[in-house]
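Entry for the shared binder. Reason: the reviewer on the internal report wants the predicted structure included alongside the sequence.
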Amino acid sequence: MHHKTSPAGRLSPRYISNKYAVGQYPHGFSNSFADHDLSDDDVRALAPILPVAILLPDEVIGKTREFMDAFTGNTMYAVKCNPDPIILKAIYHAGVRHFDVASISEVRLLRSLFDDVELYFMHPIKAPEAIKEAYDVHNLRVFSVDYIGELDKILKVLGDKTDLVLYVRFAIPKDKPKGGVATDFSTKFGANFDDGVTLLKECRPYCSRLGVSFHVGTQCEDPFVFEKAITHISRAINECGVTVDALDVGGGFPASLPGPSIVPPVTAFTATIETAIKDHGIKGLDLICEVGRAIVASGGSLIARVEGRKGDLLYLNDGTYGGIFEAGGAIGLRYPVHLIRSDAHRPPLPHQPFRFAGPTCDSVDMMNGPFMLPNDVQVGDWIRIEQLGAYGEVSRTGFNGFDATHKITVSRQVD
């Protein structure tokens, strides 16, 4: 949708800032704004020598509203997915008032932006200093736990409080490797069934409201995974013998990425969740989720330059230590890609699968894809990589000195 050549062929000068990026980039368009998405001619006119991150907050507003219309509970945004204030303001603008924070830095960020949102500290392992500041300074009352030691820590830090809201996080057993997700979060967090049931009993006396939560994992492409998770959780609720008030179905809602199968629409997931809750008799619980990727992925793109080519291996000026972390071996996501030829007059040619290599000296900075591109890719061309609004720029590091970038925000609605 972004890539047709525009008649203008160039961003208006008033949308190009005068601030230079690290390294005093001569074109000086870092951290600038535009009222239209970049066409191929725009990119050729700008001729960026550094990676360019493009933010599309209007797209995020649309995706957020679409999700909120489909989900029957409260939509909570997982801040870790993309904490850029421009994106956070877009999500707020769309109507979200619940935010999942994982660190005291995220707590401070949200409180600096909004004073009327509810924050949920859903990271199961928290520093005692973070717990205290979150409660005392930032009016945060909701905490997640997945083992008795975390409950003990909270009680030791906060003492006898009457307004705590505690969520017990359960691990979700998988019946196959990864369980239909890109990354299985239950390998790191979550109580097993018996421990979780015990923990619900232990938490109940110390909180005003008690919830259960789970997270199926990143980029879940099978709605039935949520049904199996809710089946697991409903058994725990029935067996714990105490009143449970709320259910957090976590995140994992997918973005649309290339692959062997078509990613189902968000309504397939929300309908499966609603049906499973009804079928298992837990419809009376307050329902919330931790959506991230599904509402912000399409709100970010990256333009990377080709610095070398060896057959099907393209060397880019960005990689897994930069804005394309999840394309690497640990997760291996495939992203939609589009070739921007440095010479606009080269004729289009058939596509072939390519691999990418990032700019660092580390041999793990590789992305196998496959990424389908025309087979005439040349050094000096640019590749636009889509669906990087989730876990893209937030994962960037300074390794090997390849951290200098530009950012262009495209918006007609959000400053």
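Summary line for the report: The first strand starts at residue 32 and ends at 34.
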